[in-house]
Design brief:
The protein has 150 residues and is of the alpha/beta class. The chain has one domain: RbsD-like fold, CATH 3.40.1650. A 6-stranded mixed sheet has the order 2-5-1-6-3-4.
Amino acid sequence: MLKSIDPLLNADVLFALRSMGHGDELIICDTNFPADSVAKETVLGQLLRIDASAARVAKAVLSVMPLDSFVDTPAERMEIVGKPKEVPPVQAEVQAEIDKAEGKSWPMGSIERFAFYEKAKKAYCVIQTGERRFYGCFVFKKGVIPPDAP
């Protein structure tokens, strides 16, 4: 246990988040996502796990990782097949965590299911959650932390 570090963030996840650079992307996915096979194709090359809901994992990740403010949609959600504009509760909960962490409303972009799989293979890493609800899959693009003094 560390002070001021969310206890869900295990050593492997903290290592990956710290290793990522500006613009690198991470995947937060549900239990149904083909996480192990996709993770093998990422930069990190191995699957990371946090057994909690997608929203809880997003909250933990966003407690230490800024989103990229240089792009319009630094967070994206997997679209529901046949209903791309529909936002299920699992995605609304993650959106609420994004808004809370960033201190503003910052709507996620959306990405078609198979395009999501391809994008995930090019990500820095994959964190599989314990989320059992469908479409609990997200892409977060890492931002920067500005210096303390100008």
